[in-house]
Specification:
There is one protein chain. By secondary structure, the protein is α/β, with parallel strands linked by helices. Strands 3-2-1-4-5 form a five-stranded mixed beta sheet, with helices on both faces. Bound molecules: adenosine-5'-triphosphate and fe (ii) ion (FE2).
């Protein structure tokens, strides 16, 4: 029962094909992806949408070929309905509607943040985890509690990845800067940690000032690698602290990682060690589903299709500001 999923909330257009493996887990048949890399500055929504429209047909064909499926062999078409950049969301939605109409298969709208959590459950043994989701545009700690996905803590302004990318731009590190900051940080001379603002307010976090303060270190002559190291240590400590407190508050015993920033080995090590210390299970799904991808959209689409939670074309408008806790949870 393969479902096709189209991801298009931000930089990445992804097309995935996923089926259920007979034991309740996801089997990824294809997961094609193309990412807009701006030559300078940040992402311009219109340019990203143009990129998605250009690569869309090629990715769709590549995914179907990889999975050895024809369009008529898929059982449903899912797309990232929100939250995200409206022009990008519209391209993914338009592709999905066209494919659903052409094949006569059901159309399914998926929340991007919840899809990150659900693919973690779909590919690991996690049953009811807390998700630490850190990407470019999003940074949230969320879990299922009392009938809804609830956000226990989140960034008050930019996502951590955007803060890292901004720091990268100021230091001539090409986008996406996260991997190069990670590489540089690992080479840092291990002296005392340079102090930076550590902003956890209640359960929420803030990263824009942290990146600015790290840049001040560079301007004052601190080697770039040491500034990268300090930036990572402070930011990741905040993520892990909020995750630990969310686990303690809810009594949950599993942590799953998601989002492009979760590709970072230092963040993974810190999260794992926090879990070990409190006797919680730690799960990190493969990189191809940490970053934005179509397979996670397909997987949540499959779960929603199984309970008949589908959309008509008329009711399939995009939801750029959809909040995680607004999602009606029909599939669990
Ligand atoms: P969204 O916020 O909608 O999920 P996105 O385009 O930011 O969108 P991702 O692909 O999940 O989605 O994440 C990209 C971000 O992850 C970039 O900001 C990038 O710098 C960051 N990133 C990637 N690899 C690493 C790494 N090894 N360490 C830290 N950050 C990383
Ligand atoms: Fe994402």
């Amino acid at each position: 029962m393969p479902v096709l999923g189209i991801e298009g909330t931000a930089h990445t257009l992804g097309v995935g094909l996923v089926e259920e493996d007979g034991k309740g887990h996801a089997r990824i048949l294809a997961n094609e992806r193309a990412m807009l890399r701006p030559l300078s500055g940040g992402i311009i929504p219109r340019e990203a949408a143009h990129h998605h429209a250009e690569v869309g047909p090629r990715l769709l064909q590549a995914a179907l070929e990889k999975a050895k499926l024809s369009p008529d062999e898929i059982d449903g078409v899912a797309f990232s309905q929100g939250p995200g950049l409206a022009p990008c969301l519209r391209v993914a939605a338009t592709m999905a509607r066209a494919l659903a109409l052409r094949t006569g298969k059901p159309l399914i709208g998926v929340n991007h943040c919840v899809a990150h959590l659900e693919i973690g459950r779909g590919l690991t043994d996690a049953q009811d985890p807390m998700l630490l989701y850190a990407s470019g545009g999003n940074t949230q700690v969320l879990a299922f509690a009392r009938g809804h996905y609830r956000v226990f803590g989140e960034t008050l302004e930019v996502g951590l990845g955007n803060a890292l990318d901004k720091f990268g731009r100021d230091n001539d590190i090409p986008f996406p800067a996260g991997p190069e900051i990670e590489r540089l940080a690992a080479t840092a001379h291990r002296g005392p940690l340079h102090p930076l603002p550590y902003t956890v307010k209640g359960m929420d976090m803030s990263f824009a000032g942290l990146a600015t303060a790290a840049q001040r270190l560079v301007v004052q002559g601190t080697p770039l690698a040491e500034a990268c190291h300090a930036l990572q240590e402070h930011a990741f400590a905040a993520l892990v602290e909020v995750s630990e407190r969310a686990l303690a508050h809810t009594g949950k015993t599993e942590l799953v990682l998601g989002g492009g920033v979760a590709c970072n080995a230092r963040l993974q090590a810190m999260a794992r060690s926090m879990c070990e210390e409190r006797g919680a299970a730690y799960f990190c799904p493969p990189r191809e589903v940490l970053v934005d991808n179509g397979a996670m959209i397909a997987w949540l689409g499959l779960r929603k299709l199984a309970v008949g939670d589908t959309l008509t074309v008329e009711s399939s408008g995009v939801l750029p500001h959809q909040r995680t806790d607004q999602v009606e949870v029909t599939w669990r």
